[in-house]
From TrEMBL:
Protein name per the record: Threonylcarbamoyl-AMP synthase
Gene Ontology biological process: regulation of translational fidelity; tRNA processing
InterPro entries assigned: DHBP_synth_RibB-like_a/b_dom, Sua5-like_dom, Sua5/YwlC_C, Sua5_C, T(6)A37_SUA5, TC-AMP_synthase_SUA5
Annotated organism of origin: Actibacterium atlanticum
Sequence similarity: Belongs to the SUA5 family.
Key words of the record: ATP-binding, Cytoplasm, Nucleotide-binding, Nucleotidyltransferase, Transferase, tRNA processing
Amino acid sequence: MSNNTKTRTLAPDEYGLRQAAALLSDGELVAFPTETVYGLGADARNDTSVAQIFHAKGRPHFNPLIIHVPDLDSAETFAVFHPDAQALAQAFWPGPLTLVLPQRANAGLSPLVTAGLDSVAIRVPEHPVAQGVLQSFGGPVAAPSANPSGRISPTRAQHVLDGLSGKIAAVVDGGACAVGVESTILGFDETGPVLLRPGGLPVEAIAACLGKPVAARAEGADISAPGQLTSHYAPRVGMRLNIAKPHHDALWLGFGPDCEGATLNLSLGGDLVEAAANLFHHLRALDAQARPDQVIEVAPVPEHGLGLAINDRLKRAAAPRD
Ligand code: TXA
Ligand code: MG
């Protein structure tokens, strides 16, 4: 699709969902809300459509994408589920968990989706609009976050339009995303489950469900989430983390009740779930109001539960840019 087509905003009703599905069937790109962030969807079986995702996002490499399906039955037509994967799918789907599993032969997915790997990353989202789009479309939808590559992920339809208007056919406006950070990505090696990306499902919940620890991803391991570039989620201006006493000229992103005078607070009550839901929205708001020479300083966020995902995104947002 050309770069100057008008992007339509669709309502999250019957008609909007049918339009979204029809556009996907025509090979177009459609953004839609999931409970984590807005996804940029394309028919995962259509090479041209999947290639358009990389083009629209300006994604520099053909990193593999997550496919989205409406339920476990459908997921089983694309991936092989061993007992641990079955247990996790039953416990946490629909929800913010992506499983990396062996791909079925003849799954019919575009090789661009999996970047030629034998595995496939698969997820069943919970958001009613995502469910509606998937059921109406009736096929697997490849969907990375609906933002230009390297920038802050979108948790509102307007965020999607800010970054991709004119480059995609439509966005379904389903309001704000409840979780606010991307799904937790879990892979498996010979020894058991491996955390490939912390995200919206706390790793503690996964370990409790399986009754075994979840390994951290080893540097240089064969299974990895290759999309995990170091600099990512980057605002325009610089960032500094773990700042309990901000410099007087900085914009301060607080967490918890002790951050009096913060420009914005992720959660006044110190609630990590609320903080995750606010994270990308607050980063965008601070970035929009910052002068070019101003820095965003962020208060310490505890490293447990959803704090793992929040700190992961903050570290990438603050990392040196290429
Ligand atoms: O919450 C989410 O997961 C959102 C919503 C839209 O569902 N999607 C999302 O997709 O965050 P994306 O493309 O931004 O992140 C996909 C991640 C990348 O880091 C990629 O490298 C990894 O999944 N991935 C995909 N397929 C993989 C595979 N076969 N093996 C290992 N990692 C894989
Ligand atoms: Mg992303």
